[in-house]
Amino acid sequence: MSLRDAPRTEVAAAVIERPDGSFLMACRPEGKAYAGWWEFPGGKVEAGETAREALVRELEEELGIAVTGAYPWISRCYDYPHAQVNLRFFRVTGWQGEPQPHEGQQLAWTHASRPEVEPILPANGPILRGLSLPLVYAISDAENLGVDIFLKRLDERLAAGLRLVQLREKAMPSRDFEALARAVAERCRAAGAQLLINGDIELARALGVGVHLGSKQWLELKQRPELSWVGASCHDAGELARAVELGADLAVLSPVLPTASHPGAPTLGWPRFAELVAHSPIPVFALGGLAENDLDLARRHGAHGVALKGWAWR
Ligand SMILES: Nc1nc2c([nH]c(=O)n2[C@H]2C[C@H](O)[C@@H](COP(=O)(O)OP(=O)(O)OP(=O)(O)O)O2)c(=O)[nH]1
Fold this sequence. Notes:
8-oxo-GDP phosphatase activity, Nucleoside Triphosphate Pyrophosphohydrolase, 29% helix, Nudix_hydrolase, mutator protein, DNA replication, metal ion binding
């Protein structure tokens, strides 16, 4: 049987995170393929095991820690000359014991924005990028609040740690939208936050920020716009697949729960949301009827985080 016909090797990989945002990487020991390369702790899923069970077993064997809290995150298929793998990433936020190198491997705590270790396994580049995204994504609501109040709230939220903002004002005349976009871009830049402009690739380019595109726009695109961050609004499996195919960095899947803006509209609900995102290779934010304290619930269902509109500015 050639490698191409062989079933993919399922691998459970752990992003073991400390509250300061640093996470643990391990250097593959001598004797393994890619010895000397850095990876997230973990290993192959054995027959009869779920990915989560493999994660718990591997972390006990490799590091001597007992996992007490882990969220399913993203999955990534990658073809090495030696193996075709499907990497199932978890974000481990709770454990007992201090990680120890039980297999003689070197360990290092590092950061997504400045990984201090190299080389990192080739499959893991997009993973570090995904890790640099915060867990809360705030969508603007200036039409509702009025521009002045919105900007004031934005200042407060940025000062409180908000790091990802989408400017989406569908009914605003384009000149007003552009002026607001400049004001918001300046504030986000000063705070070190990412800004994604909804729908307008040229404006995003002119401001040097990212873009967030609606599902209809994705259908018309032939390739990913060349911008730092490209987000995609999705509502079903087909739209998620399209966003992945075109190289979106993140998706927003909605509506999870009923919203005030669309009363009576059909919703996904958490079980369907979890099904849709279960094998997503890109981070997916849950949107629709959520508040910041739904973050844990959303992550338990496989979301990267929550996207908030009304609740972001209260
Ligand atoms: N653990 C881990 N493996 C990764 C990552 N990225 C990545 O491409 N891989 C690949 C490398 C390997 O081909 C495969 C993991 O297999 P492994 O050999 O480390 O698994 P294992 O610990 O069960 O080892 P063994 O049974 O071969 O001793 O997944 C990662 O971040 N963590």
